[in-house]
Amino acid sequence: NYQKFAAEAIAIVGKKPISFEVFSDDLKEMYDQAIKIASWGKNVYVKIPISNTQSESTLQLISRLTNEGVRVNVTAVFTIEQISQAAEALVSTMGSNISVFAGRIADTGRDPAFYISHAVSITKNLNNCEIIWASPREVLNVSQANNLGCHAITMTPALIEKLRYVDKDLQLFSLETVKMFYQDGKSAGFVI
After folding, report:
1. Confidence class of residue 15 from pLDDT cuts 50, 70 and 90?
2. CA separation for the pair 31, 73 (Å, rounded)
3. Which residues are catalytic?
4. What tens digit of pLDDT does each residue of 139-184 get?
5. From the CB of residue 55, how many other CB atoms can be counted at a distance below 10 Å?
6. How many Cα atoms are found within 13 Å in the side-chain-facing hemisphere of 115?
7. What is the mean pLDDT of the segment spanning 110-135?
């Protein structure tokens, strides 16, 4: 029950922003779902993908929703053109987000910092628009996002756990790694 799950999540985050996505592929149904989701709380952002699965643009839907006071999180954004189009579609002063899938961009061998920098730059004059570094791959992405002025970054529990290594002494980290390799070899019972 998605609505029950959402209510439980909203209770946990309190007044902090939280995003819930539409599941339809039909633009009219996306609108109907977005209106319902937005009614769940003042801190709720509705995730609208940049297009549907048929490659139909959702930009008009995004503009309509923001004009009606719905907080929108434009998601699945990958290209410079999509970032620019999303920024243009966010016409309201309501809070909005653009989720740039920087981790997946990096998976293609491209530097995601270029895309995040562009997004931050073109939205700096939009009221209440925040850029989200989505799908990070490593702790370094936290520093990159921060240095670029990115407003938020999504983090998996595994990445949050790795934050404990930030600024760790590299000499000590090296020694710990050597000890781990040594212990792994002993535990495996390898002999040469």
Report:
1. very high
2. 14
3. 47
4. 999 999 999 999 999 999 999 999 999 999 999 999 999 999 999 9
5. 7
6. 23
7. 95
Provide the residue count of the chain: 192
Neighbours of 137 (CB within 10 A): 14
**Pairwise CA distance, residues 57 & 34, whole Å:** 16
Report the first-to-last Cα separation within the chain, whole angstroms.
Answer: 57
- Cα(176)–Cα(35) distance, integer angstroms: 53
Start-end of H helices in the chain: 2-13, 27-38, 59-67, 80-89, 102-107, 112-123, 140-147, 157-162, 170-188
DSSP 178: H
Q: How do strand 44-49 and strand 72-77 relate by DSSP bridges? A: parallel
